[in-house]
């Protein structure tokens, strides 16, 4: 159903004046997220931005903090609750950041043409170089060594391996259908799916388990499961929704740990260039083992294992932060610039070059992953870090 002009104006005005109910806010974001933001919404955003003047409520730090807290869903935006944690995005920065939250959806071309109205005008310049966001890209390697570039492959049946049929669905998933095995001692074939930098992919394994692979990751798995356990290997980052089968526990192996589950939802971040491997549980229960470390996680807990073998369990983790990538969002909470740029490097398929020391800044923010790299860098520059894109490099000045 098409959103009426009056309803759209009502929702935007309520949100802009910070009087929107949670339901009204969600309705507005749903319209934007669904790509329904037409010239009307663009005009409202542009008009609100153009009319801002020094001293108006949006520039008030207290109100800006409240708006950011409302949008980001982060208690960190309220500095009174966390002494010693200064709010990075304040004053004119907060005003710009509020508007930049629309960057991933629409109308940013208008914002880029506007100078911030403070003592010293600031212009957001169009970068001479930019990097496009990633997308559904992956390479499947079959047991016989044949490779299939999934982003180029047609929908439908891709291969048949024994009793297992491999299909690419219309919505870009890789689906394994394993028929009943007549042989009493079957031997499954081993397949591997690899996402490059700038790629992601979803696969449904033969047992119905769903796996989302982030950029620069891999999953090694059998064409059907047999024996007492279901075992897969990953590198990089993956989110699992494991099909329940108490008679055959599901195991995920990385280069640092082994995770065993019966049926649950969890995220594993195990990139080689990250100092800490993180396993975050959203639903159910998992056992994680690494050397002498052995822990059973509850929902909301995270196991952290460093490269030198130090391990611990962290309670009350914000699972939305850990799984935002799966939902098409960059979401950061007290994140260092170097960590953010590692994510950017993997998603935009670029290298990060530091001309000086790594800036020690903490950043809180949220932006869609479908924007160009320059949009993310524009947000980061509000912390005082100077960045630019040259060819396939992000340069930290």
Automatic annotation (TrEMBL):
- Which part of the chain is the Protein FecR C-terminal domain? 330-396
State the superkingdom.
Bacteria
Pfam families for the chain: FecR, FecR_C
Question: Transmembrane stretches, by residue range?
Answer: 89-111
All copies of domain FecR protein, residue ranges: 192-287
The answer to whether keyword Cell membrane applies is: no
Q: Which UniProt keywords apply?
A: Membrane, Transmembrane, Transmembrane helix
Q: Which PANTHER family match?
A: PERIPLASMIC SIGNAL SENSOR AND SIGMA FACTOR ACTIVATOR FECR-RELATED, PROTEIN FECR
Quote the protein name from its UniProt record: FecR family protein
Tell me the organism: Mucilaginibacter pankratovii
In the record, what lineage is assigned to the organism producing the protein?
A: Bacteria, Pseudomonadati, Bacteroidota, Sphingobacteriia, Sphingobacteriales
């Amino acid at each position: 159903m098409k959103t009426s002009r009056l309803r759209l104006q009502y929702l935007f005005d309520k949100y802009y004046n910070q009087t929107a109910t949670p339901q009204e806010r969600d309705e507005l974001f749903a319209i934007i997220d669904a790509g329904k933001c037409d010239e009307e919404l663009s005009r409202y955003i542009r008009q609100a931005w153009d009319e801002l003047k020094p001293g108006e409520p949006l520039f008030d730090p207290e109100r800006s903090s409240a708006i950011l807290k409302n949008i980001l869903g982060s208690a960190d935006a309220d500095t009174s609750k966390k002494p010693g944690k200064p709010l990075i995005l304040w004053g004119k920065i907060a005003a710009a950041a509020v508007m930049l939250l629309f960057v991933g959806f629409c109308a940013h071309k208008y914002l880029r043409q506007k100078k911030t109205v403070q003592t010293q005008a600031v212009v957001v310049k169009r970068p001479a170089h930019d990097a496009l966001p990633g997308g559904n890209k992956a390479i499947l390697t079959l047991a016989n060594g044949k490779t299939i570039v999934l982003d180029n492959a047609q929908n439908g049946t891709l291969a048949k391996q024994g009793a297992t049929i491999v299909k690419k669905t219309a919505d870009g998933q890789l689906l394994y259908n394993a028929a009943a095995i007549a042989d009493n001692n079957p031997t499954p074939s081993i397949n591997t799916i690899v996402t490059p930098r700038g790629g992601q992919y979803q696969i449904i394994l033969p047992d119905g388990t769903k796996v989302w692979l982030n950029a620069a990751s891999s999953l090694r798995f059998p064409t059907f499961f047999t024996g007492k356990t279901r075992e897969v290997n990953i590198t990089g980052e993956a989110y699992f929704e494991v099909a329940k089968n108490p008679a055959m526990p599901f195991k995920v192996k990385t280069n640092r740990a082994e995770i065993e589950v019966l049926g649950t939802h969890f995220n594993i971040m195990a990139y080689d260039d990250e100092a800490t491997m993180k396993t975050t549980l959203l639903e159910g229960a998992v056992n994680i083992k690494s050397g002498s470390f052995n822990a059973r996680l509850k929902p909301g807990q995270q196991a952290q294992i460093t490269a030198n073998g130090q391990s611990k369990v962290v309670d009350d983790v914000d699972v939305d932060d850990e799984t935002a990538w799966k939902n098409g969002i960059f979401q950061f909470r007290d994140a260092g610039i170097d960590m953010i740029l590692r994510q950017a490097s993997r998603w935009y398929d670029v290298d990060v070059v530091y001309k000086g020391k790594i800036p020690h800044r903490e950043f809180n923010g949220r932006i869609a992953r479908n924007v160009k790299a320059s949009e993310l860098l524009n947000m980061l520059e509000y912390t005082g870090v100077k960045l630019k894109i040259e060819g396939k490099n992000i340069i930290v000045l």
